[in-house]
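Appendix B.2, paired examples.
Example (i):
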Amino acid sequence: MRNDNWWCGRFRGCGYKVTVPREAILEVLSLTDKHLSAEDIYLAVHKKYPAIGLTTVYRTLDILVSIGLIYKFDFGDGRARFELAEDSKGKKHHHHLICTKCGRIIDYTDFIDDEFELLQLVEKGLSKKYNFKISGHLIQFCGLCDKCR
């Protein structure tokens, strides 16, 4: 493991050490564009680091979500899914289309600028009305993909 990855500073800034399991999980997530479950991540990490257990993977994922390095999603299949919140180039903001028949997940960035303006207005209004500090949002559209229609 190399400690020169872009995420090392985030760990240290949040008071966490860079450990082999933490780096291994981030490497697995950085090498895929899929939305992996904890079990998927464990299997990938376990191939290279057999001493890392499933409990360690779950604990590490909780930490990575809490410090904002990864996002945790519920796509309705009973398994939490994870993806990087950013990479070495910065934030990877996008939303999801979810097929309710086959489970396909499509990342999209179309209309993000238009959505951003609308969501800023909505967040500002909700924050003011409910005296609530909004720190983020998730947008998922559910329906049928082109293969299932």
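Example (ii):
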Amino acid sequence: MSLSGLFVRNVIAPLWALKEGTPYLKHLKSLEGVKTRPIEKIRDEQLQRLRKLLVHSDLNTDFYSERFSTAIYKPENITWEQFTHIPLLTKDDIRSNKRRMVARNIPSDLLIPVKTSGSTGVSLDFFIDEDSSQWKRAVTITYDRWAGWDIGERVGAIWGNPDNKINWRMYLRNLLLTRYEYLDTLKMDEKEMLRYHKVLQKKPPNILFGHAHSLFLFARFIQQKGLSGITPRGIISTCMVLHNFERATIEKVFGCRVTNRYGCEEVSLIACECSEGKMHLNCDTLFVEFIRDGKPVKPGEAGAIVVTDLTNYGMPFIRYKVGDVGIPSGGTCTCGCTYPVMESLEGRVADYVVTPDGNYISGISLTENFAMHLPGVKQMQIVQEKIDFLLFRIVRGDLFSEETVEDINKLVSERFGDRMMHQIEYVDFIQSESSGKYRFCISKLPNPFS
């Protein structure tokens, strides 16, 4: 660690936490070594925490009191099997019952309002209590360390809507404590990326952090311009599915490993990749399920990701359908972490394409196939308008030709069948969402995992 990083970690961070009255450093200390415990002990602890959360939710929220009123089980001694009978919590449930989900015994000044970016079409408003926020902060740091970062080290953040520009307090906090150098993903033109490259050369980051696709775009820009001089210790890719071709480019350009991470704004970090490349589920603050047709899926099968936040007492999220699809693994990992493994993240529910023959194709596998076979395409987005119609938005690269169009036609026929029609729309760029995320594949059909 650099001298400046050590100073921030050992002096500024503790003083800042004392000034704020935030216990995240204490939480961080308590998390040391917990990820190597026997899985049986971890599950038992989760169950005890779950029972406590359910009792609290039953006593202090109108929404869960009503939801539990007809149950044959008691929250204080619920079993894992009984837990699976609690109805899933949807985004519509939250929008319709926000106030009824807020706990009466949590002071309003300890509730933090959060609004999601609305990447699936409609944003979501909810609350996280202050202590839950501090637990999430501490847990995230434990996984950041897997990538080679620790408190005090400089971060190159490729991120939308940087919070260091909100006010002078946030600017000062970033300058002295968090030390992020931002590239706003909503402004990733050539001029801005050149400026950012120069900034990172002057202020070398310990890690690069950002949306998967934005990291890829910056890496490809550096590659195409023949630039160099950016050598972080590690890279954290988050918020989006990281495709193999993106990982390969990012690692080649920056000369270090990418740590893939998965989470959402509602519950924070859900899973993180270890040194062995396995995606471990976060058992420190969450209980994660994979559900299809109302039942847990078997290892190797795709299911809707359902999470229970074990720390948010202010507005409990119990069996919440995140809106993504993943595949759990039945195996263990040699890295030393005993937490369960997710085999792969298949993307958002809305990223699935349905063929006229009724087959479901995940956006991640779809984009992998098309991206690897179309070198003339600089950027692409696939939109399913109808069961038998796809719209391809394409930003043409230097190698784009009539042969590229023929390749697209051939791939459509191979992947979706002869009954699938399509149209190509040429655009100068594909707009990222307000959060800075970029969606490869969008389906406007009914949810196949509802």
